[in-house]
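EI: anyone free to look at a 228-residue chain?
SC: sure, send it
EI:
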Amino acid sequence: MPKETILVVEDEEDILELVRYNLAKEGYSAEGVTSGEEALQKVPAELPDLVVLDLMLPGVNGLDVCKALKSNPKTQHIPIVMLTAKGEESDIVAGLELGADDYITKPFSPRVLVARVRAVLRRKTSQAADETSVLQVHDLVIHPGRHEVLIRGKPVELTFTEFRILHTLARRPGWVFTRYQIVEAVRGEAYPVTDRSVDVHIAGLRKKLGPAGKYIQAVRGIGYRFKE
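SC: here you go
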């Protein structure tokens, strides 16, 4: 079976080598470039399975690279894991809303980075599953066709919006969604986007789920995720 290929985009040579070494040790084929310009040439030409992308690049920065890759039909399917400076919440939100799949803040543990990469690649494979199929996660069963949620066999009455939020989050455990992404998934871009409206729906959803509401986790400054 061919190795999955990963392109690391990082201008700091020591971090680049650290990431490449640890990915290679886990069996991935890892290459590296040190600028956004190189990344925009290499990704469409070689189509790696995943890109690890530093946001703080000289010249063409990581957000611009992410935007270009996600707006190109040839590369938009390639997952992106962002490397960000600690506390740069606005950049994380911007990257996720441009289509990045996950992020990790510096300084980071190489083991954590490898685990995040593995999880994103696994999610990419599982996304081919039909959205209408029954979903079982933790002690919840979610049936999109019936608009039905069961917790340990007992039905829970949810509104359309609550159901869609739960289904969106539960389909990708561990995946962080911004409030904007949640609204987009539930209603489409025409729906009025406010942080407060999402927070209110999440609060109502958690209450109805009872003890299972703990699976919906807030990610400070970013949005929400469903517990892995």
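EI: Helices lie at 13-25, 36-46, 62-71, 89-98, 110-126, 160-170, 179-187, 195-209.
SC: 👍
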